[in-house]
Specification:
- The structure is a homodimer of 397-residue chains.
- Chain A is of the alpha/beta class and 397 residues long.
- Chain A has 2 domains: 135 residues, Aspartate Aminotransferase, domain 1 (Alpha-Beta Complex); 247 residues, Aspartate Aminotransferase, domain 2.
- Chain A is built from 14 helices and 12 strands.
- In chain A, strand 11 and strand 12 form a beta hairpin.
- The N and C termini of chain A lie far apart (55 Å).
């Protein structure tokens, strides 16, 4: 009889719904050919990294001393890299960020676990707004917090400010926002964000606490219309921690590289930054991958060719809504969040399989009754899938 | 008044002794010139990665699809990479390891935090044998355990088996061993390891528990004499978890790449492996860096040019002992563990600074009265430092 950590064991055994669908897809691809399966399940960038990425790697190999390039950086990240990132942030957002506010991480998940580990004490509450990336629950609970969920605003997938206010208590230590959003693609508008920050300020003052706004921003660069603004939260709310990742913008999800900004406008910012360092240390992050730190610092302001995602979004949105699907227009990320034509989204996804359409039911995102369609796929596959989408919705008419 | 995680904050603020010495060295180098400072403080590989490492990176960039190369791997690591590593282990140690027993990690620290998170429950005890890498305490406590320290066997820096047995209780969940050892360079001999495993088996049977033997092996390849054997613990004890890193063997400490082996001989091995996956997930490790996974799988069996370390060890050991320093002959790693000629090793290190010798007092390794000398430095610096070592010990005669 073994007596290991049961929570870890169950986390390792619970197969994610998305993974299950992906593996069903693999089996189906073998049976009927990959070209006949329309797999919209995975949020994995489908366009290559910009050429500058591989160019930067080659240049570093050619011109940088091996011991320096592959050696430890400071635990917080290479100083030059942090300076370049701070400069880029300030150029774009005039946010007064310094290199000393930046902590390099092994990607978005690490940014979140390190940040939560820095501020959360056992029994605290962490607020997420439905629908949300399911790992938020895992990360919040691992840090010792209870996840409190704000119900989805299904009108616009913005944030319902009244519901949001109701979720805040004297135990609220942090709020996670994610804009552009996985799974809806929604971008929270400036006035809504301002209202959210006002509520945070009011409640924190009322409770005599600090509530940290953790802005999870892996999709920041993935917006497709000039008019779409993704406001920089550091400029709106002092107790802000930004969790950034280069996974989606540079198509580098496997390389695990991102950063945290601890806003220098918060009270005790050096203490919070120290806690970020301590949290990263206790979790086993010695430093972010050293070559990749230098690579991303040379590719700031670049993205992969996201025009493909825009083409895909427009093609899917226009056709699906013309067939009768209900969907809020997604401003960013690479997801379409479509209302299931029957209450049980899982049943709908099963029916979709008859047409070789692989969609993800929304239940695990804290907002049942929808499906997530990842459009980080080839445009050609989307075109071929359209008759299936049409036939599927016809079943409900 | 902020109310963040105090433990994380203090972990982030406690400056490590080693870091302090290194920064003193930086200041001193500016004052009197780098060539006049003899800095033996850091355990950072001083020889470049084998050329095959950069060659593998270039080849992957040239011949691998960008989306696949930089994309997510499976959370446990790329399947081909794990197969190649299992094959290499079995070729060398005939250990019956399979790809499904291997979990790729972001280096040695991650291997340890993930393993401890998998098996430890709150209130468990984790045993370390002095002298030990100070982060073991941080990692054990972060997992919810109390660290129990076996006093050093200062005769040989092997393990005193009687003391070891006394440290085991019904609460002991894991034992960490580290051979070749940081900070002593000692390699635990086969008969001593066998005795250690026998005690573990006897005590686990007596308590009706499982005690996991976590073998922290970043220095496995760094041994310098043909006669020195580093036994493979999987073959000696069923409840073994190996924590490996390529940081030292391939001089890649900044790239964060290593792996865990969950021995398939342990009871419930699939459950323990699942707990490793769940632990890694909760800590925020999505996958190990994707390019580096492929790189190390192409460089198995290679090392950096460790002959430099052997030269350094021999030079330092022969000269220091001839001057009158007391030191156990180090079989591996790149450390010399020298007895301080006065009881207070910190005072001795202060006195050494007069001769521009930067040494690390052993207190933080759980074994006061010694200094650690890292010989991953240039041979030339060692030669130039010898008169200083000689003059320093003369003060005590």
């Amino acid at each position: 009889m073994i007596n290991i950590n049961k929570k870890a064991e169950s986390l390792g055994k619970v197969r994610s719904v998305i993974r299950d669908i992906f593996e069903y897809g693999n089996a189906r691809r073998k049976e009927i050919g990959a070209e006949n399966v329309y797999d919209f399940s995975l949020g994995n960038p489908s366009v290559p990294a910009p050429e500058a990425v591989d160019g930067a790697i080659r240049d570093l190999l050619d011109n940088c001393d091996s011991v320096a390039l592959h050696g430890y950086t400071s635990a917080v990240g290479d100083e030059t890299v942090r300076s370049l990132i701070a400069d880029d942030i300030n150029r774009r957002f005039d946010a007064g960020v310094t290199k000393d506010d930046i902590y390099m991480t092994c990607g978005a998940a690490a940014s979140l676990t390190v940040s939560l580990g820095a501020v959360v004490n056992d029994g605290d509450e962490v607020v997420a707004i439905a629908p949300f990336f399911p790992e938020y629950r895992v990360f919040a609970e691992a840090a010792g917090a209870k996840l409190v969920v704000v119900p989805a605003d299904t009108e616009s997938f913005q944030v319902d400010i009244a519901s949001f206010g109701n979720a805040l208590t004297p135990k609220t230590k942090a709020v996670i926002i994610n804009t552009p959003n996985n799974p809806t693609g929604a971008v929270i508008k400036r006035d809504r964000l301002e209202a959210l920050c006002e509520v945070l300020k009011k409640k924190a003052a009322q409770f005599g606490t600090h509530i940290y706004l953790i802005s999870d921003e892996p999709y920041r660069e993935l917006v497709y219309d000039d008019a779409t603004e993704v406001p920089y939260v550091v400029n709106m709310y002092d107790d802000t921690i930004v969790c950034y990742s280069f996974s989606k913008s540079l198509s580098l999800p496997g390389e695990r590289i991102g950063y945290i900004v601890v806003s220098n406008r918060m009270e005790g910012c050096r203490d919070v930054y120290a806690a970020v360092c301590g949290s990263g240390r206790a979790l086993g992050f010695v430093c972010a991958p050293s070559t990749m730190q230098r690579v991303v610092s040379r590719c700031l302001g670049m993205t992969s060719d996201i025009s493909v995602y825009k083409t895909n979004r427009d093609l899917l949105y226009e056709n699906l809504t013309s067939y009768g699907y209900e969907c809020v227009y997604p401003d960013g990320a690479f997801y379409l969040f479509v209302k299931s034509p029957e209450a049980d989204a899982t049943a709908f996804c099963e029916r979709a399989k008859k047409y070789e359409l692989l969609l993800v039911p929304s239940d695990s995102f804290g907002c049942p009754g929808y499906v997530r369609i990842s459009y980080c796929v080839s445009t050609d596959m989307i075109k071929r899938s359209l008759p299936s989408f049409k036939a599927l919705i016809e079943e409900y008419k």
